[in-house]
Amino acid sequence: MKRASMILATSIGSWLRATRLLSAALTVLGLAVTAMPAQALFERYEPEVVVSDPYIELRTGPGRGYPIFYVAGQGDQVTMLKRRTDWYKIRGPRGKEGWVHVDQIRHTLNLDGEPIDFGELGLGDFGKRRWEMGVNGGEFGGAASITGYLGFVMTPNITLQVEGTQILGNFSDGLMASANILMYPFPRKRLSPYFMIGTGIIRTQPHSRIVEAEDRSDEIAHAGVGANFYLTDRFILRMEYKRHTVFTSRDDNEEVNQWKAGFSVFF
Fold first, then answer.
1. Taking the model in full, what pTM does it have?
2. Tens of pLDDT along 214-228?
3. For the chain, what is the radius of gyration of the CA atoms?
4. What phi, psi does 232 have (nearest 5°)?
5. 152, 191, 211, 258: most buried, per Cβ within 10 A?
6. What is the C-alpha separation between 3 and 168, in angstroms, rounded?
7. Which CATH number covers residue 146?
8. Cα dihedral 116→120→126→128 (10° resolution)
C-alpha cells in the first residue's frame, strides 16, 4: 500500500510538472506571436486612415461579445493603434478609442487615397515560410513528455530541425536533445504530411527514492511521420509519431514509441 501511494504521488507530481512546463512554453510562444512585424507596425507608427465603408462600429474590447459604444462614419479619419488577432484598436473622432474587426476596415484608405495593406497572412505564406517553432505535448514510452523545437526550411521539401524534450515518468525523468531532417512531399498543401529521420542523446534520471540506479546517457536514432495543418495567420497544428532506438550499454537496445501534438508558428 505504501509503495502504491508513493507511485501515485510521483505520477501526479509528474503531470503537474508537465502542465507547468507546457503553460510556460505556450506563454513564450504567445509572446513570439504578439511580437510579429505586422503588429509592431501599428504600435510604432500609428498610421492614420480614412473610413471608406458607410460606417464602422467601435467595441469596448477585441471580440464580438463586447458592446458597441461608438460608430464612425464614411470619411472619418482614424488612427490605427494596435492589433490583436483579427481585431484592431483605433482612435476615432473626438478621441474615441475602441476595437474594430478587420472585416469592417478591410477597405479603409490611407491619407493618399490608397488601400491599406494589413499584413494578413494566408496559405501561400505558410508554403513560403523560412522558420518554424513550436511546443508539443504527448507520450514517450508511457511517460508524459513536453517538446520544444526550432526548424529552418532549407527548401520547400526539406527542413532542418533541432528539438529538446523533457520526459516525466513514474520511476524516472529524462532529457532528450535531437537533430532531425524532415521531408515534405506536398509542402504547400494546407495539410502537409512529412517523413523524418534524426539522431540525438537521451539522459535518464531515476527517482532515487523509488529505485536505486545511476543516471545514464545514451545515443538515440529515430524515424517518424507527422503532419502540419495550417490553421490561420501564423498558426500551425502539428501531429507526430516517432519510433526511437536507444543504443544502451547493455546487450539489447531499447525501442520506444513517442506520440505528440501541439501548436507552432512560422516566420
1. 0.61
2. 668 899 999 999 999
3. 24
4. -170, 155
5. 258
6. 19
7. 2.40.160.20
8. 20
